[in-house]
Design goal:
The complex is a heterodimer of chains A (about 220) and B (about 200). Chain A is mainly α and about 220 residues long. Chain A contains nine helices and no strands. The longest helix of chain A has 30 residues. In chain B, the strands form two sheets. Chain B has a five-stranded parallel beta sheet, sandwiched between helices. The chains are: A mainly alpha (about 220), B alpha/beta (about 200).
């Protein structure tokens, strides 16, 4: 447990020392989302329709930005070896890294989304659902992303390969996440979508660290 | 007691070495020698459990390592080519985090004392990226001072160190051996350590 806390603290500390990396993803999210109302024009009905999809797709892309460095720097400087040799199972330490990744690249998106959602004329209720769907969905992005980052570790041109590998796997989270907001706007209730998103998250928390660990062991060998 | 039985290593289609047997009793050292590319680092990584051996197995205190990997890791300290130093963290933070990951958290005063002894007094709070190559190695070596691991596996520990630091490292290694620790290392230099030990030559 100590080692888990140490890894989370370390990655947060590193993110705090390199603010630019966190801020780049955040500004990317803000700008991509803001471009749509500017490009489409002030048709509120249309904007309300596309809002959930736009916000979710932008969140997927923003979460992707920092993924290829998730394990790469640790691999380069040798800390990944030390993590693999820890008496604490590597999967636990990988979970710590995923948690830190979510705290620095997922959580800010959740907090920022309602502000950006105002540009799309979403109701307060829909904004709340959007936040909950992102709160459940962005950890899934970090978890699945960790598997992709581990699989492409040490591969040349890994960045593009990582997107090709991971983005299709994000589709279920995208469908249920954006679907929850759409269903709420249409008055159907978002409960079903959110439950499915929660189920995906539970599965991810359970299996993704193990899958990522297996991939990391191959990269280390 | 660390024993290896018939270790072999493949890199691609090529067999780097095979039939490597050795035994390191408590309080003794083993220096792995050989030309570049003979597989010294590969052997050390296999013993540490970072790579899988193509053949053969390892025993620690009479028990197969593969069956008790976590217990073995708790007694192991491995220093590889990469010093495992984060450039954005200070020497003190690096040392404390490395210790926590290795399962033995350090309090600040112990960590500071170790850094001072290794010759980094006054530089504890600088980000590691401003340290020289040799100073970074020293941060990594400070882990030895705080370690209670029985088995030390060091890959080229003398690289990038100045004469004084080499002497100091030898002293640290001697102390470790005197406590009954085991030491497995590679070096191209002739190293004079107290206590008994041997060498293992790879490649011919």
């Amino acid at each position: 447990m100590n080692a888990f806390v140490a890894i989370v603290r370390r990655d947060l500390l590193l993110a705090a020392r390199r603010k630019s990396e966190v801020l780049t993803a955040l500004f990317f999210f803000m700008i991509v989302v803001s471009l749509f109302p500017l490009g489409i024009g002030p048709e509120t009905a249309m904007l309300r329709r596309i809002a959930p999809g736009v916000l979710w797709v932008a969140a997927l892309l923003a979460a992707m930005l920092s993924l290829n460095r998730l394990f790469a720097t640790d691999h380069q400087d040798g800390t990944l070896e030390q993590m693999a040799l820890s008496p604490t199972p590597l999967a636990v330490l990988v979970s710590g890294k995923v948690l830190a990744h979510w705290l620095t690249s997922g959580l800010p998106l959740v907090l920022l989304a309602p502000v950006l959602g105002l540009q799309f004329d979403l109701s307060a209720r829909a904004l709340g659902v959007l936040m909950i769907s992102l709160l459940l969905g962005t950890p899934i992005l970090s978890l699945i992303g960790a598997i992709g980052a581990a699989l492409t570790l040490g591969v040349r041109g890994g960045g593009v390969l990582l997107s090709l590998l991971v983005l299709p796997l994000y589709i279920p989270a995208l469908i249920f996440g954006a679907g929850a907001v759409e269903a709420d706007v249409a008055g159907l209730g978002a409960g079903g979508h959110l439950s499915l998103l929660g189920a995906l998250l539970a599965l991810g928390v359970f299996f993704a660290p193990w899958a990522a660990t297996a991939a990391l062991r191959i990269a280390l060998d | 007691m660390l024993q290896a039985h018939g270790l072999a290593c493949d890199r691609g289609d090529r067999r780097l070495f095979s039939g490597v047997d050795f035994a390191v009793p408590a309080g003794e050292w083993l220096q792995v020698e050989g030309p570049n590319g003979a597989g010294k680092t590969s052997l050390l990584r296999i013993v540490a459990g970072l790579a899988a051996a193509a053949e053969g197995h390892l025993e620690w205190e009479g028990q197969a390592v593969a069956e008790a990997r976590d217990a073995f890791n708790a007694r192991l300290l491995y220093l590889g080519h990469a010093p495992a130093i984060k450039d954005d963290l200070s020497a003190l933070e690096n040392l404390q985090i490395a210790a926590a990951v290795a399962g033995r958290p350090l309090d600040e005063s112990t960590a500071l004392a170790a850094l001072r002894r290794i010759g980094l007094g006054g530089r504890e709070d600088l980000p590691s990226r401003v340290l020289s190559q040799g100073q970074k190695r020293r941060v990594a070596l400070a882990r030895l001072l705080c370690s209670q691991a029985r088995l030390w596996i060091l890959d080229e520990p003398f690289v990038a160190l100045d004469v004084a630091a080499v002497d100091q490292l030898c002293t640290i290694l001697d102390e470790h051996l005197a406590r009954g620790g085991l030491l497995l290392f590679t070096s191209h230099q002739a190293v004079h350590l107290a206590g008994s030990g041997g060498s293992l030559r790879l490649g011919r």
